[in-house]
Amino acid sequence: MIRISKNITYKESRFYQYIKRHQKYAPLLFFIGGFTWDSLTLGRIDRVYDIVILCTYITLLTASIYIYNLVDGEKWKNTFFRKNEAYLPLAIQFFLGGLTSAYVIYFSRSVSLSKTASFFLILLFLLFANEFFKKRVSNKYLQFGAYFFVNFTFLSFFIPVILKKMNTEIFIISGLISLVSTFLLIILVYKNSYSTRVAMVKWKMFGLIFSIYILINTFYYFRLIPPVPLALDKGVVAHNIQIQNGNYKVSYEIDNWYIFWRDHKIDFNRTINKPVYVFTSIFAPTDLKKKIYHQWKWYNKTLDSWQNLDKIGFEITGGRDNGYRGYSYKNNVKDGMWKVEVVTEEDLVLGVVDFNIKTGKSSRKTNLKVREF
């Protein structure tokens, strides 16, 4: 009688009834809740708090998926998780939201929006995927596919942070660890859950996960994924740069107030015989060292293509909140469209600083600003 009474009390609780009435939208709301919470609390990728939070999320996500798929078995009858199984899909959505929002926070520090667009598209897919699948989070293929993606992404920047080193080999190792760990979770669930064996075909699931693995590596090969945990924090085309007392004094033109997505004016009014400077600050985790290059490119209208010109490199050391500062400059420049790609040794693009040069004997500079970095 006591067991039945507890079950009735649970079934009649206001929160449970509310979840049942709004179960169509509740997972999405919990997903957004995780996203919002991380946006307010996370900051640096190498901070102890951030590392603990992300490790907790990926651990609890793994546990939630495992329990959710096994809780309908006889062994779980009358357990705490069976009585509260209605909340497990919400937990999965919350931790997925928390992890993906963390990735957006770190990637959004980059100046190049184009290089983070692919990730935002994946984020939007994860955010709205449950609205496009009838079974929503109970769909095994969606569930484990999303898990593999966030697991791979987590390890791709967590391992470099821990090892203080990042390169292609580290990325490959991260992918293999996430692939093996996801396969082990699937095997464990499949072995112990009769409902899972009925709902999915194991080899079809393995094929899906491996396809996502190949897709992510293909994106990496074609340099479509930002080289986390590095991020381009600032990128400015400038008229002059001076270093005083360890600070960089950068003189550059600012654009109209409604052009909020970049700091500098895209039309660079150059005075004849004066150099063009490009200043960048690059965020990197503490003690991580990496060679970075400024690849100068000029658009040749005759050939209708970008031409590679100077490639200037410098070593960066991580740890500074506002990024490791550096700059390059060029004297012999032509009028027209220019861009400076900030790249790693592996030619992975951190960001792009683009501008149009217009040269005059005494070019008038409007809205000139001097700022210390």
From TrEMBL:
InterPro entries: DUF2914. The chain crosses the membrane at residues 25-45, 51-71, 86-106, 112-129, 141-163, 169-191, 203-222. It comes from Polaribacter marinaquae. Residues 290-357 form the DUF2914 domain. This is DUF2914 domain-containing protein. It comes from the Bacteria. Keywords: Membrane, Transmembrane, Transmembrane helix. Pfam families: DUF2914.
